[in-house]
Design brief:
By secondary structure, this protein is mainly α. It has three domains: 3-101, no CATH class; 111-337 and 527-539 and 557-565, no CATH class; 340-430, no CATH class. It has 26 helices and no strands. Helix 1 packs antiparallel against helix 2 (26-38), helix 14 packs antiparallel against helix 15 and helix 21 crosses helix 22. Residues 445-458 and 568-575 have low confidence and may be disordered. InterPro entries: DUF6020 (IPR046062). It comes from Aerococcus agrisoli. This is Glycosyltransferase RgtA/B/C/D-like domain-containing protein.
C-alpha cells in the first residue's frame, strides 16, 4: 500500500470518529471526505520543511489547547479532550496533504479547460445554486429576520425612534430607503442576499479564471455556504452583514489589482465604481470599518507601486465624504452620536474581571468605579464573553465615563498595571473566538443570536413589529428546530462552527507569513482587510457572535488557495 493511502486512511478515520462522537453532522463529514477522493494520487512528501512545519503546528496546537482548557475548562472535559486529540490528528493529516500538493494537483494543465466563457458559465451556475439555497430562507423570513439591534434600527428608519449613530447611521439610511419604497425592510434584505451571491459567484470566477480545478473551488464554496451561518445571516437585518460582504469583496478586488499590477483598476469605470462602493460600505457600515479602510488605503499608497495615485485619490475622497457624512449630514437629521463610553468596552471588561476576583483596589479608584456602577453589581454582572451585562445595567452611569475619560483611563491603568495577568485573562476570554480552536459554549451570554431563529422580544417594539410577507410559520419552525438540533443551545456544547473563526484567523496569518517568506509580500495586501479586521476585534470585540467574524472565514477560504493562484514572472505552471 502506498504511503499516501495511509495518510488518507488516518484522515478518513478521524473524520468518521468526529462524526460518530456527534461533533459535527453528516453534511460536514461528507464534505470533508470529498478532497480525499480527488487527492488519492498525491505523493506525500516527508521533507525536512514539511516535518518542521508539522512539528511547529504540533507545538502551537498543544499550546493553544493548554490555554483553552485552563482558561475555559468545559463541563464535559473528557469528551472535549478526546475531540481535541482527534482533531489534532485530522488537521495534521490535511496539513501534510496540503503541503505535498503540486500545482498540477491544484490547477488545470491546459488553458482550454478554463476558458473565459467556461469561467463565466461556472460563476453563473454557482450564483444559481446559491439562489436555490437561499429560497427557503427568504420565503420563511422575508421581509427580514430581526432581533433587538435590528428592531432598534428599523424603528429609527420608520421615524418612530430618535436617530442615533450607536449602530451606524449609514445602515439606518439604507433601511429608511427600503421603508420609503416598500414600507418594509425587504429591499434591504434582498440587497444583502444579492450582494452575498455576487461575492461568492465572483470568488468562483476568480478561482476558475486562474485555473483552479472546479472540484476544489466547488468544495470550498459549498463549505462557505453550508458550513457557516452565511445563509440565515443574510436574511437577518444586521449592519455586520453588508460589512462582511464588502470586506470579502475588498479582498477579491485587491487581489485583482495586485495580480494585474493595477490594470484591473486603471481605465475601467466599472472596476472603479465597484472598488469605491466596496470601500464606502466597509468604512461606513461598521465603526471599526473606518479604521480598517483608512489604514488599508494608507498602506496601499505607501507600499504598492502602480496604483498610488488612484489609492491616494480614493483615500482623500473617502475622508472628505466621511467628513460630510459625520458632520453636516448627521447634524441635519439630529443624529445623536454613539456614546464615547462604547469604545472603552474592553477596558470595562479588564476592570470587571479584577473586581469580580475581589482584588484589593485603592480607595480613590473604588470611589470612581462606584460612580459608574456599584462594585457588588459589577461583581455580579461581569461576564467573560461580553461587556453588555455590565454596561447595559440600569445603574450603569456611562455619563461618568463620557465626562471623565481621562480619569477613567487613569483608573483603568492603575488596575491593569497592578493586576496584568487578570487583565490579560479577561482580554483572552473576551476575544476567545479569535484564538480558541476548540470553539466556545453556545450557551454563553451573547451567543444567543447564534441561530438567528430565536424569537426576538418584539414587545419592546410593539409599534414597529415586523410583518412577514408569507405565512409560513411551519417552515420557520422547521428551520429553527433544525438549527437547535445541529447546534444545541446549552452551557455544555461547543458546536464545530464556533471553532471556524479561530481556524480562519490562524489560516490568514499563516498564509501571510508564508507569502512574506516567499518574498511575495505584495500579496499579503490581499489579506490585509482581514488582518486589519482581526486587529480591530482584538482591541474591541463586542461579544461571542458569529456575525462579527464571518468575513474572516470568507477571507481564509481565499487564503488557502492564494499562494497557488498568484502568478510569477516565470509563468503560470511552475511545477
Amino acid at each position: 500500500m502506498r504511503k499516501n493511502y495511509w495518510l488518507l486512511a488516518v484522515i478518513a478515520i478521524t473524520n468518521l470518529m468526529l462524526f460518530a462522537l456527534d461533533y459535527y453532522g453528516l453534511f460536514t463529514t461528507v464534505l470533508l471526505f470529498v478532497p480525499l477522493y480527488f487527492l488519492r494520487d498525491v505523493q506525500v512528501e516527508y521533507s525536512k520543511r514539511n516535518l518542521w512545519i508539522l512539528g511547529l503546528f504540533a507545538v502551537i496546537y498543544i499550546g493553544i489547547n493548554i490555554l483553552s482548557f485552563n482558561l475555559n475548562p468545559p463541563i464535559r472535559l473528557t469528551y472535549y479532550l478526546i475531540i481535541s486529540f482527534i482533531k489534532g490528528l485530522f488537521f495534521a493529516g490535511y496539513i501534510l496533504l496540503y503541503l505535498s500538493m503540486k500545482k498540477r494537483d491544484w490547477l488545470y494543465k491546459e488553458a482550454s479547460e478554463f476558458s473565459a466563457k467556461q469561467n463565466r458559465r461556472y460563476a453563473v451556475y454557482v450564483a444559481l445554486a446559491m439562489v436555490f439555497v437561499f429560497i427557503p430562507f427568504m420565503i420563511a423570513f422575508l421581509p427580514g429576520n430581526m432581533f433587538i439591534d435590528s428592531y432598534s434600527q428599523w424603528g429609527q428608519a420608520m421615524g418612530g425612534i430618535d436617530l442615533t449613530d450607536w449602530h451606524p447611521f449609514f445602515t439606518t439610511i439604507l433601511l429608511r430607503i427600503s421603508y420609503l419604497l416598500t414600507e418594509s425592510p425587504i429591499i434591504y434584505t434582498l440587497g444583502q442576499v444579492a450582494g452575498m451571491i455576487f461575492a461568492v459567484a465572483y470568488f468562483a470566477y476568480i478561482l476558475a479564471n486562474h485555473g483552479l480545478k472546479k472540484w476544489i473551488s466547488s468544495t470550498i464554496i459549498a463549505g462557505l455556504v453550508l458550513m457557516t451561518v452565511m445563509v440565515p445571516n443574510m436574511v437577518t437585518i444586521y449592519k455586520d452583514n453588508i460589512y462582511n460582504i464588502a470586506l470579502f469583496l475588498l479582498t477579491l478586488f485587491t487581489f485583482q489589482i495586485i495580480q494585474t499590477k493595477g490594470t484591473w483598476l486603471k481605465g475601467h469605470p466599472m472596476s472603479w465604481l465597484l472598488y469605491l462602493g466596496t470601500l464606502i460600505v466597509v468604512m461606513f457600515s461598521r465603526h471599526n470599518g473606518l479604521y480598517v479602510g483608512i489604514t488599508f488605503l494608507l498602506l496601499m499608497v505607501i507600499f504598492i507601486q502602480g496604483t498610488r495615485k488612484q489609492m491616494f485619490a480614493i483615500l482623500v475622497g473617502l475622508i472628505a465624504l466621511y467628513s460630510l457624512y459625520s458632520g453636516p449630514l448627521m447634524e441635519r437629521y439630529n443624529v445623536e452620536p454613539g456614546s464615547a463610553s462604547e469604545k472603552y468596552s474592553i477596558m470595562v471588561q479588564h476592570m470587571g474581571a479584577i473586581i469580580a476576583e475581589e482584588k484589593p483596589i485603592d480607595a480613590t479608584d473604588v470611589a470612581f468605579l462606584e460612580e459608574i456602577l456599584p462594585l457588588e453589581i459589577w461583581q455580579e454582572k461581569y461576564t467573560p464573553s461580553m461587556a453588555d451585562p455590565v454596561k447595559f445595567h440600569s445603574d450603569y452611569n456611562k455619563e461618568v465615563i463620557n465626562d471623565n475619560q481621562a480619569e477613567f483611563l487613569k483608573t483603568w491603568w492603575h488596575l491593569v498595571s497592578k493586576y496584568p495577568l487578570t487583565a490579560l485573562k479577561a482580554q483572552l476570554q473576551q476575544i476567545r473566538p479569535l484564538w480558541d480552536i476548540n470553539g466556545y459554549e453556545h450557551g454563553l451570554p451573547g451567543s444567543v443570536m447564534f441561530h438567528y431563529f430565536i424569537n426576538s422580544p418584539k414587545a419592546y417594539y410593539d409599534d414597529y413589529v415586523e410583518n412577514y410577507t408569507f405565512d409560513v410559520q411551519g417552515l420557520r419552525g422547521f428551520l429553527e428546530d433544525y438549527s437547535f438540533k445541529e447546534n444545541p443551545y446549552d452551557m455544555e456544547t461547543k458546536p464545530f462552527i464556533t471553532s471556524l473563526p479561530a481556524i480562519a484567523v490562524f489560516t490568514i496569518l499563516t498564509v501571510a507569513i508564508y507569502l512574506l517568506v516567499k518574498r511575495q509580500w505584495q500579496f499579503v495586501f490581499v489579506l490585509m482587510p482581514g488582518i486589519l479586521h482581526i486587529g480591530t476585534l482584538v482591541l474591541a470585540m463586542p461579544a461571542y457572535n458569529m456575525r462579527y467574524v464571518l468575513a474572516l472565514i470568507f477571507i481564509a477560504a481565499f487564503a488557502l488557495v492564494l499562494p497557488v493562484v498568484t502568478k510569477k514572472e516565470s509563468g503560470f505552471l511552475s511545477k
